[in-house]
Amino acid sequence: MKERSVLEPRLLRLAKATLLIAILLTPSIWMLKVIPPLWKDVDAYNQVTQPGVRTILHYAPLYCFVARIPFYVGQAIESFRGTTPFPRGSFFIHPILSDSGVFVLLLSQHLALCAAAFHLICTSSRLFLARIVLATAWAINPLFYTFAQCVGTETLSMILMLLLSAAGLRMIRNSRKVPRKDWFLLGTLLWLCILTRHINAMLAILLPLAFFLLSTHRLVMIPVTCSRLHRRWRCLQVKRDLRNTALTLAVGVSCVVLAHATLRTLSYAVHIPYHSSVGFTFLWRLKFLATLPAETRNQFLDKVAKNTPSPEVRKLISVLRESPPEDQPWDVLAFMHKAQVALFTPETEAQEERFNLVLNHTARAFLYPPDEIFLRAVGTDFVKSQKMRIPDVVNHLFGSTTFYFSHPETMADCASLSTFREKSATDILAVFKKHSYFRHARRFGYTGFLIFWFANLSLLAVLAKIRKEDIAAVFSYATALTLVGLLMMLANCVLTELQPRFTLPMWELTIVSASVLFGRTVDCLSKTIADFRWWIC
Fold it and tell me: What is the pTM of this model?
């Protein structure tokens, strides 16, 4: 009887976990069967096929390497069928794209998304009903699943950010005594996030901000606390939270430094001179110059030229003055070639390194101090990002896949893949239009989601007030998640032109924040209902 009583709860837990996983996997199974693999234009192609400087310094190396492992497995599967020779170690330098390899990659991405979402949902709430609601809400949201169906660094970044968010939630809940393994896990996940996308370095402020908000809240509450003993206890909590703020900040800075050292080490190992790619990325931010009247643009560039003593930067700005035609699309790569020819003749590998340095100094001239015209362009893009809806981001991924059909020479190895073989851009876009799953949230923008977030926060505050429960930790962490997501969006607007896929961190961290608040709200509500029933009886 005792063995049976122990076995039943285990079977029940297994059944509950199986149901949650089944809900989370349902959209993945449907997508793998119905939706063709999506590609984040030529960037995704370069990430998974090109060796050298781009896959280490420009795109960040983690996804660029990890994605080649499923490609290798797919190629091995093809070799067992007798269609191709078994791949050798050189495959990781010059991978061969195949339908089997792409399918294995997407399958691994969907499974990793399911595992990360399952872990986060279980961490957000202990109640099975709340977990079911959260899993269903995640399953009907096409954002994460469409990225999982897409080749590109954002997918791995998205999965790692879910795991990092769950680790952070567990730490701030158990802030009194955080186990060493949790510190190690936090540092590892943050380091991997930065090695996936450079902008993820901003995640280093997530936990310090959360603990700082928590300590600030408790510090404000000290003067209004009646009990002397309680005030003393709050003072001790403030000291502990400030200590955790310093520790998490130290971990964050260490991870940024370690990621930077990793990039330098990899560059040295493959004999590539290390350089920052900020200047190269920033050129796309300068596309807004084409929207300015000629006189305004020239006055603005005159101010920027005064911000730098470098004659090379000033010469590049003079080339820039002539390049963007008014109200016409600006070809950034053509400008780069024109500027490099104007600055360095003849072009050599050493001059390429100097040109990257000039680009970085040019970005610094534009950014410090920032001019009103530049800030206005950044603000315009940031406002646009708040108006973007999830279907807009999903549609962008389908649209970026059609890049191949207008530039097949830049993605030559993709010609034999099922996504592009005997297909057209119209066929790809028709998939998005055909399935309402991708468009059911077309009236629900980010601003509307923020309203829902505030409503959830208010309800939780009311329930906590009734029950006299301390929700400061969850409140602080949820607020930090949302703020960091917005800051990452703002940083993207500062450094490059706005693209719908760049809103993913903002959406993801806010959705995670809402999930954390919802889980805590349901937990608190269930206790309130249980107390009410007990009082009635």
Answer: 0.92
